[in-house]
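User: what does the whole thing look like in 3D?
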Amino acid sequence: MNVLLDNLPLFREGFIGTLSLTAASALIALVLGVVIAGCRVSPIPPLRWFGAAWVTLLRNTPLVLLFVVAFFILPKVLFPGMSPYVLAVLALSFYTSSFVCEAVRSGINTVDVGQAEAARSLGMTFTQTLSLIVLPQATRTVIAPMSSIMIALTKNSAIAGAFSNAELFGTQKDLSDMGYNILFVFFWIAVAFLIITFSISGLFRLLERKLGVAR
Amino acid sequence: MRLRKTSAALAASVAVVLALTACGKEGSAGDDNDEEGPEVPTYTVADDVDVDSPVLKAAQKRGKLIVGSKADQPYLGFQDPSSKKYEGFDVEIAKMIAADLGFDPEKDIQWKTIDSSIRETAVSKGQVDLMIGTYTINDERKKQVAFAGPYYMAGQDLLVRKDDDAIKGPDSIKGKTVCSIKGSTPLRNITENKSEYGAKTIELGKYTDCVKQLVDGQVDAMTTDDAILKGYAAQRPDDLKVVGETFSDEPYGVGIKLGDKALKDAVSDAIEAHIENGDYKKAYEATLGRSGSEFVDPPKLDRS
Amino acid sequence: MSSVLYDVPGPRAKARNLILSVVGGIALLGVGAFIVFRLARTGQLAPEMWEILQYTSTQERIFEGLVATLKAFFFAGIFSVVLGVLLAVARLSDHLPIRWFATAFIELFRAVPLLITIFVFWQGFLINDPMWALVLGLTVYNGSVQAEVLRAGILSVPKGQVEAAYAIGMRKSQVMLTVQIPQAVRAMMPTIISQLVVTLKDTSLGYIIVYEELLYVARQFSDNTLINGANPEVVLLGAVGALYVGICLLLSWFATWLEKRGRRAKTGIKVADAEPVAEPDKALDGKDGKDGKDGKDGK
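Assistant: Here's the predicted 3D structure for the full assembly of 818 residues, as C-alpha cells:
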C-alpha cells in the first residue's frame, strides 16, 4: 500500500499520461480508420490500392518499429521539433487505424446486400450509400471488435513510455529504479490498467446495448 | 484479395532475395574511423588466482568471466557492428581486471550488452559478474550493488550541434530542449533543479537515440558524462561539439554483487596495479585519448 | 459487398472516376516523391547506404537477429496455444475455484501491457536468460488471449454433439479431449493464427530487456555504423520492416489457406459452418458475436 500512497503524484501522472495518450490516439485512429475503410471499398482504384497498402504495411509491422520511424525518420521527412507526445500519438494512431479499418470493413460486409442495392435504386451515390445507409448499420457489429482494439491501444501506449512520455510503464520503471519491490509496484500498475480496460469494455457494452437493434 | 496475395508474394520474395544474396562482399560497411593511433596494451594473465568470492568461484568453474558492457559509446564501450568485438576504455579496464583475476582477456571474457536502465538488476541477479559501463557510483545505487573504484572521474557536460553558439554551459540552456537517458543521474540533475536550469527534457532509452535527435534538430542539446559525449563528438566532428564545461562529478566504478567484499578488493587491487604499471595510461591514450581529451590522473580508489 | 456499394459506372461516372483516379494517383505519387526527396536530401538514400546490405557481415547479423526472433516466436507460439487450451478448459470447469483462478489469470494478463509483463518477469523472477523471460511474457499474454478464442470455439460446438458423446458413455474429460477441443481448434484456426502473427510482432518488445532480436540488432547496427557521417537507418529499418511484413503475410496467407482447406474437406464436422466463409474478407463476419479475425485484440 505504501508504494501507492508514497508515490501518488507519480502514479497520477502516469495514469493521466496513459489516458491522454489512449484518448488522443483513439480519436485519430477512429477517423483515419473509417476514412481508409472508405478508400478500400471505393470505386476509385488508386484509393483502393492505397487503403490496401496502408493496412498491409501498418498491421504487419511491430509497433516498436513504427515508434522508431516516428522518432528518428519522420523529423527528417517533415520538420524537427515535434513533441514526443505528438510523435507517440502519430505512431499509435496510425498503427491502430489499420485495425479500425479492417473492423469497419468487416462491419460493412455484414450489412445486408439488399440495403445497399435499395439505396442505389433510390439513386444514391457511393458516398451517400456509405455514410447514410451502410456505415450506421455497420456501427452495431463493429462495436465488439472495436472494444478490443481500444483495449489493445491502451496497452500499446506503454511503449510510448520508453520514448519520453509520462505514462504508467514509466511510473513502474521509475519506482523499480528507486528500489521498491517490483511485485508490489506491478500490482498497483496492473490495478490501474484493469480500471482503464474495464471502463473501456463497460463503455462499449453500454454502447452496444444502446445501438443494438434486433435485425 | 488478389492484391493481398500479390503483395504477400512480393514481400516473401524480398525476404528470399535478402537471404539468397548472402554471398555478399567481405569486410564491413561504414566510414573508416581507424586512423593510426596508439595501440592498446596487452595484459599478462595471472595464474592460480584464489580469492574467497562466490561470484569469482562460479566464474572460474564456468571458465568464463561475464562482463556487462555498453555497446553504443564510441571510445568507451562500443561494439563493432560487423565483427561484434567490443572496444573502448571501459572495455580495456575490464580486460585488465579479467587478466588479474586469471581470465584471458581475448578468450575467457563473455561480453554482454547491458543498457543503462537494467544495470542494477543485471548485477544483483548475477546475470553479469562485473558491470563496467560508465557506471557512476552514487548512494542510491550502493543500496543495490557494490562498487569497486572509482577508476575514472567524468563530469556532466553538454553536447550541441557544431553551429550552435547559444549554449555555452549549464546556465544557457533555459528554454532549450535537452535530451538524456531515462533514469540517468545527469537527467535527474536537470529535472530536479528545473528552476535553476529551466530546460525542457526528452528522455530516451539509448544514448545514440539522443545523438540522432540532436543531429536531426529534434533537441537542442544532449547531456551526460563528458567522456561519453566526447566519443560522439569525435565520431561526427562535422556535426557535433562538446561544450566543455563540466558541472558535476561522475566517478565511474565497477559494479559488483552486493556483499562480495573479496571480489571488490581483488578488482580494486587490479585497477591499482595497472594504474601503477602504466597500462591504465596507455589504454586511455589508445581509446578515450583519441576523442581529444587530455589524460588526467585517475581519482583515488575508495577502499572502504 | 464493396461492388454493390456503387452502380456499374456510366459514361459520366466513368469519366469522373478516371479524373479522380488520376488526381488521387498523382496525389499519392506526390506524397511518395516528397518523402523520397526529403530523405534523399539527408543522404539516407545514397548508394553507399544501400551497399551496406551487400556485406556478408551485415547479412550475418541480420540473419542472427532473424533467428533470435523466430526462436522466441517458436517457443512462445507453441506454449501460448498449449496454455490457451489449458486455460480455456479451466475456465469451463465445473469446479468453482479452478474457474475463478483461470478467469483472474486471463483478465489480469490481458489487461496489463506485455511490455510491463516481460519486464516484471525478467526483473522480479529468477529468469536469467532474457529469451525465456520474453517467451514467458509472450506465453502468458497470448495464452490468455488464445484461451478466450478457444473458449468461444468450444462453446460453438453444437450441444447435440456433447450430449451424444455423454449418451454413449464418454467421461467429461473424454468429451472435452475428443469431441470439443479438436473441433474448437479447427474452427478457430484462422483466429489462432492471426493471434500468432501478433505474437511474432511482439517479440520485438524484447528490446526492453536487451534480447537481441531482429529489430534490436538492426537498430544497434545502424546506430553503430556511420556512412558519410550518417546512420543507415532508412535502409536497415526498411529491410527489417520488409522481413517482418513478409513473415506476417506468410502466416496470414497460411491462415487463409487453412480456412479454405477446412471448408473443402467435408469430414462431417459441422463446426466448419460456424465461420461463414465465402472469401477471406467475409470471414471477418462479426455477426455471431465473436470478434472478427482482425478485430481480435487488435494488436
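In plain terms: Chain C touches chain A through 68 residues (CB under 8 Å). The first helix of chain C runs from residue 11 to 41.
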